[in-house]
Every structure is written in structure tokens, then in C-alpha cells.
TrEMBL record:
Organism (species): Aquisphaera giovannonii
Lineage: superkingdom: Bacteria
Domain called VOC: residue spans: 3-118
Name listed for the protein in its UniProt record: Glyoxalase-like domain protein
InterPro entries, per database record: Glyas_Bleomycin-R_OHBP_Dase, Glyas_Fos-R_dOase_dom, VOC_core
PROSITE patterns, sorted: VOC
Pfam families: Glyoxalase (PF00903)
Length: 134
């Protein structure tokens, strides 16, 4: 079977400039690519190992997603301190029984982004799944 090299979410936005400003200004991403250069309708944003693409495709309707973008970090409380007061925090920070310290926000498009840090350093070395998940 062919291998998969990477998974990168491609999400819709109605405000490309606002989305780029949110992700670069508040979350520290950089613009890795955009097309076209002037007034882009697509962009790739990166920070460390995290990548996300945004596109404007009005024919697809209102941007919507039923899932959550999940970013693992090495200091969830520092990320929370930087963002608190600048974004809508949905929950947390809270330590969960499955070994993660997490909180979540809404981005400028209404997408949910959850940030998590393992509470046990050994969690980084294993791929344990939360109880109840198979």
C-alpha cells in the first residue's frame, strides 16, 4: 500500500486577509505560500510542524467543519496566556484523565482549535488512546 507523507487541512475562509492576520499575528504562523501573490485565494500557513491551508471558494457555501484542529504543544499554559483576551476561549485549560492538558479557541472563521500538552512525558513516547476509543 502506498504511504502517506503528510495530512494538511484545507479550510474555507471568506476573509483571506483576516485569516492570514489571525494565524500569523496571534498564533505565530508564517505564510509559506499563497496564490496569487496579490489578493490570494489560497494560502499555506506553517509553524513548527503544524500546517494549514485556506481557500476562498464562494461556490462551496458558508465555511463549516464538524471537527477540531488539534495542535500539540510543549507549553499549553504559555499558549493560553498569550491568546487569552484576544480570542474566544471555548474550554480550559484543563487536565483530562487521558493524560492531556488542553484548551480550545474559536478562530476568526469559527473553526475550533484545541491545544494540548501531555501531562506525562512518557505520553510523548507512546500512542495511548483515551479510554473508550478503539
Amino acid at each position: 500500500m502506498a504511504g502517506f507523507a503528510q495530512l494538511t487541512a484545507m479550510l474555507q475562509t471568506r476573509d483571506m486577509a483576516g485569516t492570514i492576520a489571525f494565524y500569523t499575528g496571534l498564533l505565530g504562523f508564517s505564510v509559506a505560500s499563497r496564490w496569487p501573490l496579490e489578493d490570494p485565494v489560497w494560502c499555506l500557513l506553517e509553524r513548527d510542524g503544524a500546517r494549514v491551508m485556506f481557500m476562498t471558494n464562494d461556490h462551496l457555501g458558508k465555511p463549516a467543519m464538524t471537527g477540531t484542529l488539534y495542535i500539540q504543544t510543549d507549553d499549553v499554559l504559555e499558549v493560553h496566556r498569550r491568546l487569552e483576551g484576544h480570542v474566544h476561549v471555548l474550554w480550559g485549560p484543563e487536565v483530562y484523565e487521558y493524560g492531556m492538558h488542553e484548551f480550545a479557541i474559536k478562530d476568526c472563521n469559527g473553526y475550533t482549535i484545541s491545544f494540548g500538552e501531555p501531562t506525562d512525558p512518557a505520553e510523548l513516547q507512546t500512542s495511548k488512546e483515551p479510554s473508550g476509543v478503539s
